[in-house]
Design brief:
The chain has one domain. It is 19% helix and 36% strand. The protein has 195 residues and is of the alpha+beta class.
């Protein structure tokens, strides 16, 4: 058995090229990602991003997220939703650019579910969820990209509700009221408050 102290001298280790998320993109996108500094745009996404509105329905215990101001206003006026503690959950891209994936929006009649992962989407479609009347809530990154932060997902079995936040402390606090960690839905740009 080889000693771990000298693992860097092993031939297999010397042949490994470590790839980053940036290596997965085409050259133009890679340059834009590499040039991005947190809190600035540098031609990549942040200025092109839109608010991901965050609403809550106290009767159905459903958190709802959308990028359309008209849809937000309609949900407040007609469906009993109110703005949640934060007016928005962060910022997402309106269109698919720079390798961003759709933040799929599914609904089962009482709970909205959001994910950038096509496999998760497929599984939820077999568990009673359907594509919502608006199929996505913008475009996000499945993996971390410079300038983005995780969109944490929690789930409450008693409320039958998924909750999403970019605030890690708020994510952890949700555990005190019956939510459990349910992974990361995607990576998005911070809202103005988090900049």
């Amino acid at each position: 058995m080889r000693s771990l102290e000298n693992f860097h001298t092993w031939a297999p280790y010397q042949a490994i090229k470590v790839l980053s998320v940036v290596d997965l993109f085409d050259t133009t996108t890679r340059e834009k990602i590499t040039a991005l500094e947190p809190g600035s745009d540098n031609g990549f996404g942040i200025k092109e991003s839109v608010v991901l509105h965050r609403l809550y329905n106290r009767i159905s215990h459903d958190h709802f997220y959308c990028i359309s101001g008209k849809e937000k206003d309609s949900a407040i006026r007609s469906s009993g939703y109110i703005p949640d503690d934060y007016s928005d959950a962060g910022r997402v891209l309106r269109t698919a650019k720079y390798g961003a994936a759709a933040l799929h929006r599914l609904y089962n009649g009482s709970d909205h579910y959001y994910t950038a992962d096509a496999d998760e989407r497929a599984i939820k479609l077999t568990q009673g969820y359907a594509v919502d009347n608006v199929p996505n809530a913008g475009f996000v990154f499945a993996n971390p990209v410079a300038g983005t932060i995780p969109l944490y997902r929690s789930y409450s079995a008693s409320a039958k509700d998924h909750f999403y936040t970019v605030d890690h402390k708020e994510h952890l606090l949700s555990f005190n009221i019956g939510y459990v960690d349910d992974g990361i839905a995607g990576h998005i740009f911070p809202s103005a408050e988090e900049d």
